[in-house]
Each structure stands twice: as structure tokens, then as C-alpha cells.
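OP here, attaching both records as promised.
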Amino acid sequence: MRYFIVDDDPASRTMLKNIIIDGDLGVVIGEAESGASGLQTILTINPDVVLIDLLMPELDGIETIELLGKKGFKGQFIMISQIENKEMVGEAYEKGIEFFIHKPINRVEVQSILKKTAEQFRLRGSLLTIQESLANIGLVNQMKRQPSVKEIVLTILNDMGIIGEAGSDDIIAIIEFLMSQEHKVSQLPPLKDLYEAVSKKQGFADSDINKESKAMEQRIRRTLLTATNNLASLGAIDYTNHEFEYYAPRYFDFQEIRKQMIFIQEGKEEVVRIKINSKKFLQVLYLETLEKYNQN
């Protein structure tokens, strides 16, 4: 693996370089003290992975990643951060960051994350080789199949461990309803209207729609509560867990999951009151489903 380090702290750059070399994790082919000074070099030497600090002068980590992406850079990024600003962390995830290294730098954490990144890199390379081989014998188009909306949603719910929960069928029905609309919306209507529209489409009588929509609301809230507990448990054990890193800040209020993580880590047994934002969850799930459906 070929690494490039961008960090305005020389000590951090040296520490990261030593960890990579001592652990036989690859080679460091370049470094820079800011995104502005490292931008062109990264594009020229095209490293496999860029380890980049979140907060830097001139160009911060997120701005640098955006510019590199616009200029066609396809390598992976690992964000280095000493802050826990959930909005900035969430924005980093949206830009494609898959892993974080937390400051102060810990050798074990760095080695673990770089090994995971290397494994992902190898798997992607193997997948690309397989795809190219299939294309050469004309099988790719035969094997491609448009996944259904339900399949896409089930995959996401499975990652959160909530397939089989009472509200999972309601969640699928809502996304299928939204995807069936001729004019796709970017913002969801009020949840009450959405629940009633789905209940009506499912054939409930007008006299029962209000009752069913309220029941649907409660089933979904209980299901999302289970999802927050599942993700908090994953994060409490392994902060770099892929499902935790991806879903916790995107689909939920991260501060609420963090609260549950602390209770788990401290071994407390009392009930934790978690705020559930159903609209945020459904909004993000709908947009991600729409994106994945249009990619196929």
C-alpha cells in the first residue's frame, strides 16, 4: 500500500510514518503540511490511501477531499481528527470517509485501521479483476439485474440488525410508496400524512386509517430504538466498525447513540431515554434507496 500523509503537525506525520514502516504496512510516498501544499503532489503520484487531518490552515481536510474528488482522484481517505464535533464528523462521512484515526495517535488503533483499509483495497482489486474477466467473456450484462426497492431497503435494515422487527415492514412499505410516486420528492411530507397515505394504499378503511397510522408510527419508533441500541453496542465494542461508522451519524442523532454507548461502556443497567428522529431516518433511507436504485 502506498500512503500519503497530510497533517500540519510534523510530530503526527512522523509518528504515522513510523507506525506504517515498523508495522510493515506499506510505504509512505509523500507528505504535506496542508491540503493546499499537498493537492498537486497527490494528483501527480496518485497514492492508494491519503491520511489527512481534519483541521488544517488554508484548506481543511474536507475541502481538500472535495477538490481531489473533483479533479478525478480515486484513492481512499482516512481522516485524522482530535475533535468530536458531530456535524463535522458527519460531513466527513458524507464525503466518503470510511475510517477515522483519533488524536492523540494510538499505534494499535492506527495499525488496526490501516489493516482494514488494506483488506478493503485488496477486495476491491479482486472484484475489479473478476468483473473484467466476466466482461471479457460477455457475461456481465447477463448477470446484472435491477435490484428491487425492497431488496435495497432490506440490505440496509439488515446492516442495522432490525430485519424481523415489527416496524421493518412498515419502513419498507413507506419507501416503496415514495419510490412509486411519479414525481420524486427531495423532502418528505409530514410523517402523519405519509403514514396515512401508506395505510390507505394498503387497503385500510377510511375509519381505520387514523388508528393504523398511529400504530405504524409506534412500530417504527420501537424498531428505530432497537437500531440505535444495536449500533451503540457495535460502537462501544469497536469504534471503527463499518456499520457503526456508516449508519450512526447518517441515519440517527449521533449524540443520542453516543449517550447509549457511554452507558454500555460503563456497564450501567438503568434504562436510557433515547430520542428517536423517525423523519431523519426515513428521509436518509429514502434518498439512499433512490440513489442506489438509479445506479443500477
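Record two, same layout:
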Amino acid sequence: MSDLPVGLVFPGQGTQKQGMGEPWRETPSWALVARMSEAAGEDLEDLLLRTSAERLRRTDLAQLAVFTVSLVAHAEAERRGLLEPGPTACAGHSLGEYTALACAGVLTPLDAIALVAARGRAMRAAAEARPGAMYALVGAPFAEVEELTRQVRESVGDAWIANVNAPGQTVVSGSPEAMAGIAERSRSIGAKAFALQTGGAFHSPYMAPAIEELGMALQNAAFTGARFPVVANVDATVHADDGDWSGLAVRQLIAPVLWERCVGTLTGALGCRRLVEIGPGRTLAGLIRRIAPDVEVWSVDCPAALDALSGVRT
């Protein structure tokens, strides 16, 4: 790919959109979609080409869609030789961690998508059993968001930190009443609050009921040694051959995503000087520019972006 140490990053739920598979439909790597449909128990081609935007908001379908497009994009980048001699490390944001595990060889694509399907179903069921909401707070330091969240938890209801995404961007998760309280008080700490279009209070104790179903699915997955290190969401730590990925996957359901620290690990301890976001949207690229402005960032969200990336190879 280049003489720069390269890290790969993969997006999570929220980047899905109607027709998101169309740009990849004519690539040789699109053949993966048919193979993965059987393992997922879902017609992924229909999901990626013809499913409405409203239906794609459903948690289980959104996760399948984002994972599949990300994996197809990665496969196409590999097929074109754009990832040679190979990345230094990788990480994924929430759902994207499963893409990272598949691309690092920890899971086969079929095992990974079976887990994604089980995870999505379990999270959807947990959210239906106990409705929740999520808000992104933009513009306030993490410490102030953390303190506001604590105050609301003590005075209004369930509220937790769900994602520490970047300087000045933190996501909170919990009961609808508590989230409304945080949004109402967000101006007091200089933050703007944005409701996220999620199906529940993800990365919080509200997802505890999903642990059993995901745990059963994890028992059927074969984890192997990674071809290169993967940085885990829950501890922002490098995991390779010694990664307890079953345990990490379960913890990720109810623990915050430490994305800012994950990027810090990629660019710090692992020395990645170019980070390539592979999958739909460019959300992670925007966060990375805030976390590590001195690092080169590329997004691969369509085949044309692969053409652009080929032009920077040295």
C-alpha cells in the first residue's frame, strides 16, 4: 500500500442507507453477498439494493447491511492489491469490530456474519423489551459530559456514557426520560445534543438481555490467531493471538466504545501514520481528523475511492 504504517478502521451502525450496495454491485467481490446470505439467514442482495431507508433503521438489518458492504469493500481492496504488503493493525467502531475481526483473519466471513446476525437480533429484542435512546453531545469536554450524565442518573433516571468518540464528541445512552434530561441540560456545559437514530440504548446495561443469545452464538464461532493486531473497543488495547474475543464481544454490548483511545492506540503504540476507513460513509474519517490531525486519513466508501487510493501507493 505504501511505506507508511497503515491501519484499517471499519464503521458501525448508523452509516446504512437505501441502495448502499449499488456502487459495489458490478465488482467481482460482490459474489461474497450470495455466500454470506445463507450464513446470515437473510437475502443480503435485496437488503443492500432494494430495502427502504425506513426498514434499514431496524437494528438487525442495519448491522447486517453495514457489515456486508464493509466486507465487500475490503475484499475488493485486497483483490486489487491495494492493501499490500498488509496493514499494521485494525479496529472497528462497535459493529465494525466484527468486520475488523474478519479482515484480520480472527473469524471467517461466514462465522462473522452469523455472529452479526445473532448480535443484531439480540440487541433488537433487548431494545424492544426495554426502550431506550441515545444522544451525541458535541462541543463539551468529556469530563463535563461525564459529570452531567452522573447528575441526570441520580436525579432523573438511567444514563450512561456509551461512546467516547473524539475530543468534543461523546454519546450517552439510557432511558428516554434521562436522555431528554441530558439534552435539555446540554447547553449548561456548552454542548449541542443530537438524537441518534438507533433502536435502543446501546452500549449500556439495557443491552444485558442480549448477552445470552450472543453468548450462544459465540460458542459456535471458531476464533483463530490474528494476521495483525486488532484494537478492542472496550479497553482500547491491542489483541492478537491472545485475544479473548468471545469475552470482549460480550463486554462490548454493555460497555462504552472507547473510540478516541482506540485511534490513539493505532497511531501511538502501533505507529500507524495512515488510517483507511473501509465501508459506508465517512464518519470515522471525520472523528480521526479530530483525534489525530497529523495522521493521513482515507475513506473507501465506493469503488472510485479505491481508484483514488491506488494513486497514493508508493
